[in-house]
Amino acid sequence: MPDTPRALAKEPGACRAREILDRVGDKWSLQVIARLGERPYRFSELRRGIEGISQRMLTVTLRGLERDGIVSRTVTPVTPPRVDYALTPLGLTLLTAVNSLVSWAEVHLDEIDASRADFDRRTAAL
Amino acid sequence: MPDTPRALAKEPGACRAREILDRVGDKWSLQVIARLGERPYRFSELRRGIEGISQRMLTVTLRGLERDGIVSRTVTPVTPPRVDYALTPLGLTLLTAVNSLVSWAEVHLDEIDASRADFDRRTAAL
DNA sequence: CTGTATCCGCTGCGATACTG
DNA sequence: CAGTATCGCAGCGGATACAG
Known about the structure:
homodimer; disordered N terminus; DNA-binding
């Protein structure tokens, strides 16, 4: 295995919400989920469709999502080998939840950019 | 400033959704937002309320959220100094979006745990 | 009380090379 | 085509010490 998928520090009572964000909040998971929300993809298709992702990180990301039952992995033993990835039913429900966050981002991006510019201007004046 | 808040690599057409996840997906932002969703808090109250956060990271996290216009910072110049943090209206709308993700996590945590256990058992059998 | 400055270890992740 | 193995570094974030 290239890397350990994730080191989850099982905090007792602490907010379990972190775990889901660890899953969805890393660098690539969201984009992978979004892609697979459209339709199933093969490995290379996915790689080409996601700008800038390395082979390694696509593998690691897919493994993590597969482990959590969010994507399914279907191997067709032909030559050359063919592997298809798709969202599971669980993955679909996650897609919905994630989309509300994405929508939020799209709606408020200008507002955030403005706020940042403001803040930076104010703190630059020291 | 202890650290630069975040290095945002302004990718041209690429998914802007990453930016919001960079904001909300880091180690502490979510918990801070959740807390402030209940009521305004003072710095030390927040620190005590969030298990395991260091002073440094609370400061860094709050600065980032303030910069994005998600939390407000109100200084009362008394001795000892008093600083109150609260969600802005923008922050409140984010809280709503984030909550749908948190709900999802709560609902599906068992399912995910089971899937992980399954996966780990299968891959352990090599 | 509310920060800020510095040091530093750990891990995410890209680059590269190799296998079935 | 679809991975896996290894190396290397940048940056997140913890510990600690200081300051207004």
